[in-house]
């Protein structure tokens, strides 16, 4: 495979088109209250000015990823004949992110920031600058019946140098082996330690039908609307019937039941807490080695007020898997805040926001914490940066409004 040609452009810093729908604003309102779900992207466009990520890093404290052993996985392109396998190519990309994130020595850009570049024609050097990574993994997927072709290429973000590339022509059932081989090759190319030798995700299935339906459910759930939540649940019920011991199927089901209570009525979600708990218990029974189960346990303890025990589990998680999953850092920051460790919470949120710089939720949490400790200038810079993020305009306008109100700038607040 020939070397990727890369221009030396920088990330555009003055204007960006942001898409926000009415449904999106409703979701962001829920995020302001509970901050547990990711933002969706839809419809009408609004132009806003942006700040350079470097400026925010330096002035507001977002931690930089200045590691040679750092990587972003861009969404693999769907090259299937009918272009109807996007859910599969996206799911494969997500699984690669999850696998790579298990390596303590490798810094992995967050999923939302990486997926921001889906379908966008950006030069790789600009993407590397924006996501603060030294390497980029990209590729394509062509799925036809029982046949699968996956191309993968690891390049240097700085100059586009082709570090490694390969094309896999396999049976569809070999998709799990392909993922493992890609991760192994990336680890070798970047001289990354595989930790305990486990780079395959625990709790995976070998049933390709169950896996395919899982990816379909993930794509539906990612839209986060009531109808699609129930469609995702129906698919996941089929998944665990196809493979009752599929730990990750149960784990996803538990997460769907737990998080979707935010957008459903009390009647619709009446049984969801019990169903979520049962799904997590099934996941733990069939795949106790899944890293995410530590976070589930820690969250349960935190919500029950057992803060010391929860913190021990969080620390165990980070010692074993490192700081490569921004959401785990966000959850830990909530615990630190509740136990009076406010500076430590802010440091954790700085790290999460720096690792997933295009995801509004982590920068929003950081801005809220700066507000709480009275650091108005830092909160203002974060709010200005956040308003330029896709899906962040409405969310951070609320932060800017609160800052203006605290400063007594009533006219400015009324304009927001």
Outline of the structure:
The protein has 416 residues and is of the alpha/beta class. It has helices spanning 22-34, 53-60, 86-101, 111-115, 124-131, 175-189, 208-223, 226-242, 247-259, 272-286, 291-303, 307-321, 326-338, 342-355, 360-372, 376-387, 393-406, 410-415; strands at residues 16-19, 45-48, 70-73, 77-78, 107-108, 135-144, 147-156, 162-171. The chain is globular.
Describe it for me?
The N terminus is likely disordered. Strands 3, 4, 5, 6, 7 and 8 form a six-stranded mixed β-sheet that branches. Strands 1-2 form a two-stranded antiparallel ribbon. The N and C termini lie far apart (51 Å). The protein is built from 18 helices and eight strands. Helix 3 crosses helix 7. A hairpin with a 5-residue loop joins strand 7 and strand 8. The protein is α/β, with parallel strands linked by helices and 416 residues long.
Q: What structural keywords apply?
A:
six-stranded mixed beta sheet, 18 helices, two-stranded antiparallel sheet, 54% helix, 8 strands, alpha/beta, 416 residues, disordered N terminus, 11% strand
Any chance you could write out the topology, listing elements then pairs?
Layout: E1 16-19, H1 22-34, E2 45-48, H2 53-60, E3 70-73, E4 77-78, H3 86-101, E5 107-108, H4 111-115, H5 124-131, E6 135-144, E7 147-156, E8 162-171, H6 175-189, H7 208-223, H8 226-242, H9 247-259, H10 272-286, H11 291-303, H12 307-321, H13 326-338, H14 342-355, H15 360-372, H16 376-387, H17 393-406, H18 410-415
Helix pairs in contact: 2-16, 3-6, 3-7, 7-8, 8-9, 9-10, 11-12, 12-13, 13-14, 14-15, 15-16, 15-17, 16-17
């Amino acid at each position: 495979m020939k070397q990727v040609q890369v221009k030396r452009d920088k990330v555009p810093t003055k204007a960006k088109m942001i898409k926000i729908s009415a449904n999106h604003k409703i979701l962001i309102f829920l995020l302001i209250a509970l901050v547990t779900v990711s933002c969706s992207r839809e419809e009408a466009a609004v132009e806003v000015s942006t700040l350079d990520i470097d400026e925010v890093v330096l002035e507001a404290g977002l931690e930089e990823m200045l590691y040679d052993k750092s990587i972003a996985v861009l969404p693999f392109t769907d090259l299937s004949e009918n272009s109807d396998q996007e859910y599969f190519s996206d799911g494969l990309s997500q699984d690669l992110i999850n696998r790579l994130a298990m390596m303590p020595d490798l810094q992995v850009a967050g999923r939302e920031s990486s997926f921001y570049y889906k379908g966008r024609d950006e030069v790789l050097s600009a993407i590397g600058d924006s996501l603060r990574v030294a390497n980029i993994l990209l590729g394509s997927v062509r799925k036809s019946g029982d046949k699968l072709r996956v191309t993968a290429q690891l390049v240097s973000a700085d100059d586009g140098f082709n570090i490694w590339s390969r094309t896999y022509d396999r049976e569809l059932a070999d998709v799990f082996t392909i993922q493992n081989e890609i991760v192994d090759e990336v680890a070798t190319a970047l001289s990354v330690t595989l930790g305990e030798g486990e780079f395959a995700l625990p709790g995976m299935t070998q049933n390709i039908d169950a896996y395919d339906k899982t990816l379909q459910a993930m794509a539906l759930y990612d839209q986060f609307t009531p109808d699609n939540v129930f469609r995702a649940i129906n698919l996941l019920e089929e998944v665990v019937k196809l493979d009752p011991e599929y730990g990750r199927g149960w784990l996803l089901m538990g997460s769907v039941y737990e998080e979707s209570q935010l957008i459903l009525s009390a009647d619709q979600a009446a049984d969801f807490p019990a169903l979520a708990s049962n799904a997590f218990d099934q996941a733990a029974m069939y795949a106790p080695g899944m890293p995410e189960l530590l976070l589930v346990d820690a969250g349960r303890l935190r919500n029950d007020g057992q803060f010391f025990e929860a913190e021990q589990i969080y620390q165990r998680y980070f010692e074993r898997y490192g700081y490569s999953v921004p959401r785990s850092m966000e959850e830990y920051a909530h615990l630190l805040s509740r136990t009076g460790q406010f500076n430590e919470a802010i440091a954790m949120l700085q790290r999460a926001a720096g690792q997933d710089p295009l995801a509004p939720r982590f920068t929003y949490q950081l801005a809220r914490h700066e507000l709480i400790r009275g650091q108005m200038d830092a909160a203002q810079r974060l709010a200005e940066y956040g308003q330029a993020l896709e899906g962040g305009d409405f969310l951070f306008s609320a932060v800017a409004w609160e800052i203006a109100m605290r400063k007594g700038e009533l006219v400015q607040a009324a304009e927001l």
